Task: structure prediction
Amino acid sequence: MHFPTDDGVVKSVDGLSFNLERGETLGIVGESGSGKSVTSLSIMGLHEAGTAQISGQVLLNGDNLIGASPEHVRRLRGKEMAMIFQDPLSAMHPFYTVGHQIIEAYQVHNSVSKKVARKHAIDMLDRVGIPQPSSRVDEYPHQFSGGMRQRAMIAMALCCDPELLIADEPTTALDVTVQAQILDLIRDLQQEFNSAVIIITHDLGVVAELADDILVMYAGRAIEYATAHEIFTAPQHPYTWGLLGSMPRLDRERTERLKPIQGTPPSLINVPSGCPFHPRCTYAELNGGASETDRPEFVEISPRHFLACHLLEQERQRVWDNDIKPTL
Amino acid sequence: MITYIIRRLLASIVLLFVVSVITFSIFFVVPRIAGGTPETLATRYVGRAATAGTVHLTAQKLGFYDPLTVQYANWAKGIVVGSTYDYGAGIEKCPAPCLGYSFITKQPVWPDLLDRAPVTFSLAIGASILWLVAGVSVGVLSALRRGTIFDRAAMGVALAGVSLPIFFTGLVSLAFFSYALGWTAPGGQFVPFTENPAQWAYSMILPWITLSFLFSAQYARLTRAGMLETMHEDYIRTARAKGLRERNVVIQHGLRAALTPILTIFGLDVGLLLGGAILTEKTFSLNGLGKYAVDGIFTQDMPKIMGVTLLAAFFIVIANLIVDLMYAVVDPRVRTQ
Result:
C-alpha cells in the first residue's frame, strides 16, 4: 500500500502477509504510523481510493478483494467483514438514533421489513449488554456513555454475522475500567458468532489475553509474527523486546521504571536503509553492519514463528536470556 | 424540548420589543439628538408653507412635546389597537395594526404593505426554492468531484455570482432574455398567483433566476465547504464500512450533516428577503415592499420607511424563531438536552 505525495512515495504498508481462520484472533501491534490502520482499511476497501496504490491480494474465503469491483467489495462490507473504530462518538452519526444506524446496517444486506430489522437491532443491543435495549434503541449516540457507544458499535458491526471483524484500537478512547469489559465482550461474542477477529492496537496488554496470533509491525512492515504465547514467552525481535519492556506489568515488583524504546518511528517516505529499526536498535552492531545495508528477510525461524532480523539465533538467545528476560 | 420552545418564544417577544424601541428611536429620538425640535418634526406633517402657529399646534396634537416614553407608548399602542392622527387640519384614522400614517398620500401604511407583500413574498419564496435546490446540488457535486473541471467551472461561476451585483445581472438578463429573445416577461409585470399561476410564474421567472443566481453561488460554496468537511468525518467511514451504497452515504449521512448550518442561513436569508428585496424589485420594477421603502425614502415619507422597517424586522425575528425551532428538529443534540 503506497501513497504518492508531493514529498515522495509514502510506503505505508510494504510486503505484509498474514492469514486468519474463523474463530481465531489476530493482534496487530505497533506504534503510531506503523501502518496498522492502513492495513485494516485496505482489507475493507476503505482506503483513499484516489491516490493509494495497492498491490497484492486480500483473500476473503478465497475471494480476492484487491482488483475486485468496488460494488462487489461494498456488498461484502458489513456482511462478510465488519469494522469497529477507535472513537465510538465520532464514528456514529450524531443525527440518527443508535437503532436507526443498526437497522440501516442490517437492511443493506438483508431484505427484511423495518419491523424485523428493528427487532434484530434490539436483540443485538441486548446481546452486547445494553440494558433496556427496547427503549435505548431510540436514543441518540450522545445519550450513551463511551462504553455503551462502543457496545452499540459492536452490535452494529456484528448485526450481519460477519466472518471477519476488525477492531481498530477498540478501547483506546475508553476509560480503563471499561476497556476490560469491551475486550471481554469481543471475546465472548467471537465465540458466539465464531468470526475471525483482527485487533489492532499499540498496547500489547490489549492483545495479551485475546489474541491467538500476534503480528508486530514496524514502519509498515511485519517484523515478527508468532503465536501470542511465543511473543510473550520467547520474542525474538529487539523491537518486540522494546514493546514488552515498555508495557506496565502488575504481576512484577515495581523495581524500576518502564523502559521506553529510544528514538521515534521513522518517516514512511524515507524509510531507513536495511532493517528499518536499526537506527533505534541497541543490538544493530552485533552482526557486522548488515542491519544498515540489507533488508532482513521475513522468514519462518521455527514453526509458526516468523521474524525479520539479522541477529543470529545464538546472539538473540544470549541477549534475551541475559539482558532482556531478567528485566521484564 | 417544551422549555426550549417556550424559551425561544419568550426570547422572540423580547427581541420584537427591542426592535420596536430601536425603530422608534431611529425615527423619533435620533432626529432630536441631531438637533431637531418638536416643531421641525411637525413640519414634515403640515408642509413647509405652514405658519409657525400651525406647526406648533400640530406638534402639540401629534404629541411631540410629550416625554419620549409617552410618545413610544402611544406609538406602540397604535400598532396594537390602532390610533387616530389629529394634526390640526383634520383627523385621520389609522386602524390597527397602525404601522404609521403617510401624510403625503393621506393613507395608513398598513394597507399599502398588505398590497405590496404578495409581490415580495412571491419573489422571495420562488427564488429561495430555486437557489436552495441549485446551490446545494452544485455544492454537493463540486465537493464529490473536487478538483475536476466541473468543480473548477462551478466554483468559477459561483465566484462571479457572489461578486456580480443584482442591478448588473438583472439588467443584462432583462436585455438578453426579455428584450432580445423575448422568452421572459419584461420588468414591471406582476400577476397574483391567485389570478393566474402560469402568468404569475411567467412574470416572476427572470427575477427569480437573477436573485437566486446570487444566492445559489453563495450556497454552492457553503455546501461544498460543508460537504468536504463532513465527508471526512469518522461516521462517513462507518457508513461505508457498513456497506451502504455510496449514494446513501453521501446523501443520508454526508449531506444530512452538512445541511444543518445551511438551513440556518437559509432561514435568515428568506426572512431578510421577505422584508423587501430592494435591488431586485427596483431593477425589475416590481412593486414590492423594498421598492415601497425606496419610494418612501425619495419622497421623505417617514411613516412608509418606518412601516417597512418594522415589518422587515418582524420577519427576521420570526425567521430566527423558526430556524431555532427547526434546529431542534434536525439536530437531536439540541432537542434532547
